[in-house]
Amino acid sequence: MKTHPISQLANPARFLAVTRPVMPVLWVLTALCLAAGTYMAFITSPPDFRQGESVRMMYVHVPAAWLALQTYAAVAIASFVGFVWRHRLADLAAREAAKIGLAFTVLALMTGSFWGKVTWGVYWDWDPRLTSMLVLMFIYVGYISIWQAVEGEARAARLAALLAMLGAINLPIIKFSVDWWDSLHQKATVIREGGPSMPASMLWPLLLMGLGYFFLSIAYTILRTRTALVERTVRQPESRAPSRAQLEAIPEGGGHE
What we know:
Distance between the termini: 70 Å
Radius of gyration: 24 Å
Order of helices and strands: HHHHHHHHH
Number of helices: 9
Strand content: under 5%
Largest sheet: none
Low-confidence stretches: 239-257
Number of domains: 1
Helix content: over 70%
Mean pLDDT: 86
């Protein structure tokens, strides 16, 4: 019976072999996209007619928010695969992806706070999208904390997967919060009916930064998953190795003087 390609990739040895040549390509794509995007964002793109130079925070904030959501979606999917089919590789990939997903979420909240101060006059407002993004950060923190606090990798993976799948409910809330409730955030300007509403001089650097973050997320997740697999391989033979400790002979009389 022929094995499904996904099942083949779930094999740790095959995963290590397949991803080894992919890593340099991902790092190069990350560097090229981020370099080109940064140059266009801060050198060639024009200031906004309302926000002026402060609009350049968009090129960091928006892609970070995109990747915070996309990475969490990947964590939830991998958690589902690990929970249902008991693929330990999927659990490890979800665990490692969550770390960079949390970093993107914190970056989006921090840059959004500074941008909000310039455009709204306050660092924080309990805006629906801001609040739901804050909830996402707490879910990420809870997910990572479960992995660190629960003893036993299998048990930690299953508990964390349950949280990840349940937390996925928050993703559409974040996405559609500006449509469902009154929000300080503007509605979608890139992925929308009728096409993007921003000029190409702003759209291209935004997309390049988004691609750079995307490739960075994949590269980091694969790198950390490979490292976790290697560490586990090194740990297992040591745990099965016979103890070299020598028992001290007990003196006659039970050892009491």
